[in-house]
Amino acid sequence: MAESVPAYTVEEYSAGDGYRWKYRRYAPRRNPQAEVVMIHGIQSHAGWYEPSCTRLAEEGFAVSFLDRRGSGMNEEGRGDCPSFRRLLDDIAEYIQSVPRTPDFVKPGDRLPLFLGAVSWGGKLAIALERRHPGLLDGIFLLCPGFTPKIRPSLGQRLKILFSRFIRPRKKFNIPLNEPELFTANPKWQEFLRNDPLRLQEATARLLVESARLDGYLRFVPKYVHVPVLMLLAGEDRIIHNGRTRAFVAKFATKERQIIEYPGAHHTLEFEAEPESYQRDLVRWLDEQTRKKVLQSP
Q: pTM for the complete prediction?
């Protein structure tokens, strides 16, 4: 039986440009077998994923779920970011700060580190492989937002682009504000309607940086050499599953696994039985961790 673990702690990290952002840290009771760092989508935050993070900690993984600057618990610069490269640097700097060789690890070994990304955060996860290669031992993607179904209208996109140069911090609605897009579960729909940390507006600068990130991603697949697990929802109303599969098929890695859950909606965490995706995730992390241990000199 899995052990119970204490509640997460809220920690702070100071980025290279001085911005202090918060994250949730889930520590297992025993020595961790690997480190897991997670990043969220355009609207969500770490608080949406407490059950799965708790499950991972119970299974022996140390989990850090980062709230993106301007999102979740981070009020400074709400809905804004300087550039997509700065967001990538935030993740890389934190990963480089994580101790990989604690006292209980054999000399010459290190703890594996896996990056998990949800929805829009998937774009950052794989872009990291180009901007900061060599940091990760694997990536898992939950309904990644490489090919969205929903975009601002042409007129809205032109307004956003114009504002980027005149009023870069002017805010626009993120076109994902209907809870039904994320889940068919009434309980979680109500949670989303009342979630004070959910990001419903973004600055023109962040939205333009998201589009620039899309351009950057066109050249990323050849840089993705680490093992990849992708979990998809069969009834996803936010991303194109077929196009997403085609994009992931271009990755350089030979180790890729894709699991699709029929009938599930975009946020797998909000399904009536999220245990199925949690089991698949734990199984993959266990397998990858064992491979890294066997490959150690």
A: 0.93
